[in-house]
Amino acid sequence: MSAIIHGAGAATALSTFNSVDSKKLVAPSRTNLPVRTQKYIVARSDASKKNIGSGLRVRHSQKLIANAVATKEAETSASTGHELLLFEALQEGLEEEMDRDPHVCVMGEDVGHYGGSYKVTKGLADKFGDLRVLDTPICENAFTGMGIGAAMTGLRPVIEGMNMGFLLLAFNQISNNCGMLHYTSGGQFTIPVVIRGPGGVGRQLGAEHSQRLESYFQSIPGIQMVACSTPYNAKGLMKAAIRSENPVILFEHVLLYNLKEKIPDEEYICNLEEAEMVRPGEHITILTYSRMRYHVMQAAKTLVNKGYDPEVIDIRSLKPFDLYTIGNSVKKTHRVLIVEECMRTGGIGASLTAAINENFHDYLDAPVMCLSSQDVPTPYAGTLEEWTVVQPAQIVTAVEQLCK
Amino acid sequence: MATAFSPAKLTVTLPLHGSHQENRLLLPIRLPPPSSSFLGSTRSLTIHSSRRLNYSNATRRSPVVGVQEVVKEKKASNTLLITKEEGLVLYEDMILGRSFEDMCAQMYYRGKMFGFVHLYNGQEAVSTGFIKLLTKSDSVVSTYRDHVHALSKGVSARAVMSELFGKVTGCCRGQGGSMHMFSKEHNMLGGFAFIGEGIPVATGAAFSSKYRREVLKKDCEDVTVAFFGDGTCNNGQFYECLNMAALWKLPIIFVVENNLWAIGMSHLRATSDPEIWKKGPAFGMPGVHVDGMDVLKVREVAKEAVNRARRGEGPTLVECETYRFRGHSLADPDELRDAAEKAKYAARDPITALKKYLIENKLANEADLKSIEKKIDELVEEAVEFADASPQPGRSQLLENVFADPKGFGIGPDGRYRCEDPKFTEGTAQV
């Protein structure tokens, strides 16, 4: 995927940075988004969008070869990238930001000498020293607060929770101080922290290491939440989060750290508030984020073979929602399916359903359907764990049901 | 940990450290029954650091001797602890604290301010003793009882009073209130409502100072002083921060304003070992106990602690025995505390004590002090007038400052950022 397309909207974001070399960053403004030049063939329905009564049954007589995943451009394109794994992309983003600004520092458990429990900070302590990549004792509440105090006095810490679940211990600091201090101080102090860590349901890690905490943090006023899903957006979001003056919580997923992708050599950042179009389509909008993106894409293959044409959007920004991209998609397809790993009750999907119903009610042909994981503590047994999380087969069934 | 109030039991606990130094400390400590006076402050206490540390910390021994001894010696040899100018500065600061808080109470009962207001009457010696030694770039972190800390640090009385009235001209634009006094200019890092919440923030500010010195290679001698109460010393955040501060030798001073009461919970009923200063050596930093009703004693301890931090020798835990003359907050009827206890501490009012010292040692006369009091009265009156006359925040202020970068409210359905919506600046936008 070309770098140019993803870095949209960053012009305004960049204006706050002092030392930006605008020639290096490939991030045009939002108003002049170039047209996507992906190579794919979409199944076209001959009728117009007003297929309300007759349903959207696919016409097999037409040319229906569509690719489930938008194929990458041919490798003859100008920028040669380099291939790496997602955790390496995060590391690259972090290292570049630390090189660029000496105020950026990392703190967390085992981030220094150990290199991070998922190797995101590997090698950084050797390069930047023990104070810049700080190995903390096991006291999440206190070192998160310490990061916040450091941010108030001029540093830009990246606080790592070894597992996002551990940040529950830091909830006091995240909710009361991180989110609120800019407001209660009347705008005097900024808290440019990034709180990041792996979360989500892994492979039989047990209930407490398999938590989906997006829902817990989403109500806190004053913080932004983003979830990365590919090496490309992982690096871009990491860099954007570090450069942002707001406190940002970056959700990574335990099972996605070994994803491989080719990313551009030149510097780029992703916009924190924008969603990512994964696969344009006509029949239904599927909104997803993080690991569920891959379940959705797997289901999309099946769906395409059955003749459906889903539009898949990775919402990326969990708080705030990018209602523009989502809205445009709803206006086009009129059907929405949300697929998430978060819990059903009070989760991201629940908020998104409410937001879509409020803003785009007139454009909907069917109720918004939300597939979330079960409201259970993640069981250890493999079979039970599988049934806790949304699987591609359920997504296919849901799409078929919505498109009837 | 000693659970019964007997000296014999107590002496058993300390020798875990296994040094002779500590044994000198084990004077019979009479822990009284809960309702009467605090531990007698006439004992001399030695400040020491624990020996049971890893090698890198092994050379850390505090050179400070028991404070009361220092004071006594100095008095005996007729050298005064302060000069006239210093004395007047201290006196003025304490009078400002006292008058301001009394005025707050008046204004509260007249309906000018609402909510929870926690007054500092009686504890002025701690604030003045420590903060008057700091520079503008040193940081102070406090709790909800923060009006006087803000005033001592340099925030103007006008700004604090306006903040209490909830006006735009307040130090936090009316958005913080009594419990959240912030000032970037004076490095007052708040004002926190939950106890213990500010201590990690203070640790972070101290970390920032060390970072500046060691990573950014700038000249930075800034220290941070964290104020909190006896109730906080049973909270996990306190211990976590003592550990980190001692581990990395952060330039921070932990000041415990032990006024014996956490709303209605007596310190002795809540704490297994009520001597808070002892918890410092457990983490490898000096723990000092000082009479918090005497500003000069506090100042002597503070000098040593601040200099220690500036030299890079690490944190200090200072327990100030003090007392609040009023209830926990203006909503507290204060019926639980014994009248005899209150009378005992009222007799040790820090302002009267300093006044007596200044006059007896011919550093100032009645007229000087009266003129200071008059000046402060006028200042406080003027602050009230200013606050009264200031405007209330408008609707447009509602959505400002939630984010430093208002793009954090996201992109609306029309494709524009919500902060670009004209209704946003009016405060009526849906975000």
TrEMBL record, chain A:
Its cofactor is thiamine diphosphate. It is an enzyme of class 1 (oxidoreductase). It comes from the Eukaryota. This is pyruvate dehydrogenase (acetyl-transferring). One of its GO terms (cellular component) is chloroplast. Its EC number is 1.2.4.1. Residues 84-259 form the Transketolase-like pyrimidine-binding domain. The pyruvate dehydrogenase complex catalyzes the overall conversion of pyruvate to acetyl-CoA and CO(2). It contains multiple copies of three enzymatic components: pyruvate dehydrogenase (E1), dihydrolipoamide acetyltransferase (E2) and lipoamide dehydrogenase (E3). One of its GO terms (molecular function) is pyruvate dehydrogenase (acetyl-transferring) activity. The keyword Plastid applies. It comes from Cardamine amara subsp. amara. Tetramer of 2 alpha and 2 beta subunits. NCBIfam families: PRK09212.1. SUPFAM superfamilies: Thiamin diphosphate-binding fold (THDP-binding), TK C-terminal domain-like. PANTHER family: PYRUVATE DEHYDROGENASE E1 COMPONENT BETA SUBUNIT (PTHR43257), PYRUVATE DEHYDROGENASE E1 COMPONENT SUBUNIT BETA (PTHR43257:SF2). Keywords: Chloroplast, Metal-binding, Oxidoreductase, Plastid, Potassium, Pyruvate, Thiamine pyrophosphate, Transit peptide. It catalyses: N(6)-[(R)-lipoyl]-L-lysyl-[protein] + pyruvate + H(+) = N(6)-[(R)-S(8)-acetyldihydrolipoyl]-L-lysyl-[protein] + CO2. It is found in: Plastid, Chloroplast. Signal peptide: none annotated. InterPro entries: THDP-binding (IPR029061), Transketo_C/PFOR_II (IPR009014), Transketolase-like_Pyr-bd (IPR005475), Transketolase_C (IPR033248). Pfam families: Transket_pyr, Transketolase_C.
Automatic annotation (TrEMBL), chain B:
SUPFAM superfamilies: Thiamin diphosphate-binding fold (THDP-binding) (SSF52518). InterPro entries: DH_E1, PDH_E1_Alpha_Subunit, Pyrv_DH_E1_asu_subgrp-y, THDP-binding. The pyruvate dehydrogenase complex catalyzes the overall conversion of pyruvate to acetyl-CoA and CO(2). It contains multiple copies of three enzymatic components: pyruvate dehydrogenase (E1), dihydrolipoamide acetyltransferase (E2) and lipoamide dehydrogenase (E3). Residues 93-393 form the Dehydrogenase E1 component domain. Residues 362-389 form a coiled coil. Keywords: Coiled coil, Oxidoreductase, Pyruvate, Thiamine pyrophosphate. It holds the Pfam family E1_dh. One of its GO terms (molecular function) is pyruvate dehydrogenase (acetyl-transferring) activity. Tetramer of 2 alpha and 2 beta subunits. It comes from the Eukaryota. Its EC number is 1.2.4.1. Its cofactor is thiamine diphosphate. This is Pyruvate dehydrogenase E1 component subunit alpha. It catalyses: N(6)-[(R)-lipoyl]-L-lysyl-[protein] + pyruvate + H(+) = N(6)-[(R)-S(8)-acetyldihydrolipoyl]-L-lysyl-[protein] + CO2.
